[in-house]
Amino acid sequence: MKKIIQNIDKPLLITTVLLFIFGLIMIFSASNVMAYMSYDASPYNFFIKQLIFLIGGAILSVVMIRFNTKMYGIVSWLGVIIVGILLSVLLVVGQAKNEAVSWFELGFFSIQPSEFAKIVMIMWMARYYEVNEHKLDKYGASLFPLLIGGILAFLIIFQPDLGTAIIFSLIIFAIFLSVPISKEIKRKILLTFVGLVVVVALVLVSSGKTIIYERQLERLNFTRPCDRLLDEGSQVCNAYIAINNGSLTGVGLGNSTQKYLYLPEPYTDFIFAIIVEELGLLVGIGLLLAYAFILYRIISIARKSYTNRGAVMCYGVAIYLFLHIAVNLLGLFGLMPMTGVPLPFMSYGGSYTTCLIVALTMVQRVNIETKIRGNIKKEN
Length: 380
Known about the structure:
Blueprint: H1 2-7, H2 10-37, H3 45-64, H4 69-93, E1 104-106, E2 109-111, H5 113-131, H6 139-157, H7 162-178, H8 183-207, H9 214-217, H10 234-246, H11 271-279, H12 281-304, H13 308-332, H14 350-379
Antiparallel strand pairs: 1-2
Helix pairs in contact: 2-3, 2-12, 3-14, 4-5, 4-6, 5-6, 5-7, 5-13, 5-14, 6-7, 7-13, 10-11, 11-12, 12-13, 12-14, 13-14
């Protein structure tokens, strides 16, 4: 354990811990009104649950960080199978929540298998491409992970959970492009992918159907969002109002007006708007800079990794974080439909919080292994 503590990336650890603490505070501030008024629960309801998720995630991290990343890859094979089974079962026995069948309700908390699918696939693809590195000039070996990822993506789309499906697919495709596969295979796959997108789009347009639901399209309005204040467009409008209220320095912690049932799920999808309203635009910009710093540290660790396995894991986690940040904020500002994607460190949610901690633990473990190997080389 001493070696682990010595070789952990301290700047990354400190930044992520501070963001988790800040997020916990903001979840309490954003959720206390809704917990009491809509759920007839204690104002501390979501705060306590999130604290339990963080403690559980921390315990899991302490256990997980002791194992070599090679073990993560081996275990991930089982993880892919389990996630595939859970996603399939969910479509049969799952209950709709926010118009999507994405969760298993287990009383005190719920589990979202599609969140775990992202992390499991990052682990599995890193290990798979390492084991098959001498076969990557063949189509079968190179494209097998895309086949598995495609199956899981379709199961997620059928829930329907467009935001998670988009992020999951982009993670898979980005990892595929990052590994040393034949350039000819990559070029043909890119052309095939673009062709499929065009064909699907033409089929949908000609049939009058769309994979984006009307309720999602109604949220796509950033030029004049408050023209539809009394219908679904009110979500973006109220987010704008919250941000405008906050100005540079905010109205004060706990003093948000938009959390009084104006914004749906203010402690998940729209928590950035509450943060800016209460603490101001300067704090919002500071949060974005903290995100940039975390991504920089993760990419730096990826570049220093002495194995392709470790590099792929880190790049996958960086893509995972970036996409969550981008999709959440683009939805918040009406630049794309709001799809229920959580904002890292800030949004309430047990499945996502656990997956985020696991992802960061993977990165730290890669850094530990790189530094230990570097120290051994110095000694020799």
